[in-house]
Amino acid sequence: KVLDNNQESIARQFNGGHRIIKGPSGSGKTIILVHKAAFLLQYEPKIKKILFVCYNLTLINYVKRLFLNKNVPLGKDGVEVYGFYDLCGEIIDEEVDHQNPDDKYYKTITELTFQELENNRIKYDAILVDEGQDYSDDMFKVIKDLLNEDTDNLTIAFDDNQNIYKRK
Question: How would DSSP label each residue in 14-76?
Answer without folding.
Answer: -S-EEEEEE--TTSSHHHHHHHHHHHHHHH-TT---EEEEESSHHHHHHHHHHHHHTT--BST
